[in-house]
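hiii so um. not sure if this is the right channel but i have a protein structure encoded as tokens and i wanna go backwards to a sequence. like what aa goes where. can anyone help
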């Protein structure tokens, strides 16, 4: 199990990220972010795993992006060995693009990446509990740079 996750979503976190180390802390942070940004824009958080290294060093992640917008969200898992992936909704969507904002910089996701906020939280819990493995509670689609799929 990892010691904690470092989470960044605002310029003020550059020197001091938000630290979470339990499912309750993750839930509280996601809810706080949801309420803080509900009348502003869809917010994107960068989640970095910190603590003990995975025992076999087989999975090394750079980060997971976690988007929050009302009762929905998106995920991006970026790994140096496994590749990179967008979350995959369990229902079909019309092709399109969703824009989330990390420190007021826009990041596009395919509409097919939008999942429930409850699933987003479970994925972050799994990331913490697994030591950085790609969460299994959510479906994934391959990320292709420069190509947004619907």
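sure thing!! here u go:
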């Amino acid at each position: 199990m990892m010691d904690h996750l470092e989470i960044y979503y605002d310029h003020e976190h550059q020197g001091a990220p938000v630290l979470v180390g339990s499912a309750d802390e993750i839930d509280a942070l996601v809810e706080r972010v949801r309420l803080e940004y509900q009348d502003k824009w869809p917010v994107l958080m960068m989640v970095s795993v910190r603590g003990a290294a995975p025992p076999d060093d087989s999975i090394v992640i750079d980060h997971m992006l976690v988007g929050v917008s009302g009762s929905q969200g998106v995920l991006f898992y970026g790994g140096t060995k496994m590749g990179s992936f967008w979350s995959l909704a369990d229902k079909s969507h019309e092709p399109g693009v969703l824009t989330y904002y990390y420190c007021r910089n826009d990041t596009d996701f395919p509409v097919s990446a939008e999942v429930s906020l409850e699933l987003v939280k479970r994925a972050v819990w799994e990331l913490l509990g697994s030591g950085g493995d790609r969460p299994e509670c959510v479906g994934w689609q391959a990320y292709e740079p420069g190509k947004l799929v619907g």
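oh and The radius of gyration is 14 Å.
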